[in-house]
């Protein structure tokens, strides 16, 4: 399929909308490491997407929410109708947004949860109305277009958050809040802080107490959580950068590249170089 077969609208380099509508299903994407926030709405189609090296199978009417830095590739895909919203942080991620609909909220910047949502028939109607308004605004050249486009995007995200909260009960107990606080801290500091003690201290807890809280919600241990986030970033850099293993190790806070190699091999059962070679083949 040629690129020109996809209808696209854009506002400067800040926000864009791509539309796919075909009588016959076809592939419309290629592997990439994302440099912006993306919402994929596959209305008609099926396939398997790989997101941060995990596979997600879908069929019709599903929303994917992806953040900068995530690795996205298509294992298989046959799409008849789809929409892709792309925006950068400066366009939408402002501090005045409610925390649930912000870029660090329920939908984005959360590599620890499933990145997809399946709207109901009624939800789909509401999202369609918002999308139609968005398309009309892209076509217009009226005053305050920036503000209108941003408002439509925010409406779309707000409704998607509501859909996700309906489908996935988001608890608000002490353990769940602690887990979220911990995950945010790890996301901000995993390249420099590697020990459970570092994070426990910042949360005002002992490492033992933090581990007990995690046991209550049945999730992985804090140590495994930190390790898995480091490994995920190592995979991203191995596959989507030309940096040496030594440089990647340094980027991730390891002063000894040999230690990093042992750390990675223990987690993945392959050396960094072997993982990179196997993935690209």
Helix content: 40-55%
* CATH topology term of the largest domain: Jelly Rolls
SSE string, helices as H and strands as E: EEEEEEEHEHHHHHHHHH
* CATH top level label of the largest domain: Mainly Beta
| Tally of domains | 2
Span between termini: 24 Å
Strand content: 15-25%
Give the biggest sheet.
8 strands, antiparallel
By DSSP (H or I, 4+ residues per run), the number of helices equals 10
By secondary-structure content and strand pairing, the structural class works out as: alpha+beta
Q: What would the average pLDDT be, to the nearest integer?
A: 85
Structural commentary:
- The structure is a single chain.
- This protein has 281 residues and is of the alpha+beta class.
- It has two domains: 165 residues, Sandwich (Jelly Rolls); 91 residues, Homeodomain-like (Arc Repressor Mutant, subunit A, Orthogonal Bundle), CATH 1.10.10.
- It has ten helices and eight strands.
- Strand 4 and strand 5 form a beta hairpin.
- Helix 2 runs antiparallel to helix 3, helix 7 crosses helix 10 and helix 8 packs across helix 9.
- The protein is globular.
Task: Provide a compact summary of the structure.
This protein has helices spanning 89-92, 121-139, 145-167, 174-189, 196-202, 207-216, 222-240, 245-251, 257-268, 272-280; strands at residues 7-11, 15-26, 32-33, 37-51, 54-59, 62-66, 71-87, 116-117.
């Amino acid at each position: 399929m040629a690129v020109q077969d996809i209808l696209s609208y854009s506002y400067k380099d800040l926000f864009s909308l791509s539309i796919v509508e075909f009588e016959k299903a076809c592939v419309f994407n290629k592997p990439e490491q994302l440099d912006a926030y993306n919402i994929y709405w596959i209305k008609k189609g099926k396939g398997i997407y790989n997101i941060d090296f995990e596979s997600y199978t879908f069929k019709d009417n599903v929303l994917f929410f992806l953040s900068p830095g995530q690795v996205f590739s298509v294992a298989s895909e046959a799409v008849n109708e789809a929409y892709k919203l792309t925006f950068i942080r400066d366009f939408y991620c402002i501090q005045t947004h409610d925390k649930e609909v912000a870029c660090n909220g329920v939908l984005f910047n959360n590599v620890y949860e499933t990145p997809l949502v399946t709207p109901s028939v009624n939800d789909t109607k509401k999202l369609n109305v918002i999308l139609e308004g968005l398309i009309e605004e892209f076509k217009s050249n009226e005053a305050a277009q920036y503000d209108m486009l941003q408002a439509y995007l925010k409406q779309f995200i707000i409704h998607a958050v509501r859909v996700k909260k309906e489908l996935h009960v988001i608890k608000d107990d002490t353990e769940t809040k602690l887990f979220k606080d911990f995950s945010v801290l790890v996301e901000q500091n995993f390249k420099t802080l590697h020990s459970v003690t570092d994070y426990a201290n910042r949360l005002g807890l002992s490492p033992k107490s933090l581990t007990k809280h995690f046991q209550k919600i049945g999730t992985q241990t804090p140590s495994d959580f930190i390790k898995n986030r480091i490994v995920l970033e190592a995979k991203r850099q191995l596959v989507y950068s030309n940096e040496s293993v030594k440089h990647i190790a340094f980027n991730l806070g390891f002063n000894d590249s040999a230690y990093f190699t042992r750390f990675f091999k223990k987690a993945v059962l392959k050396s960094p170089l072997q993982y990179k070679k196997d993935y690209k083949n």
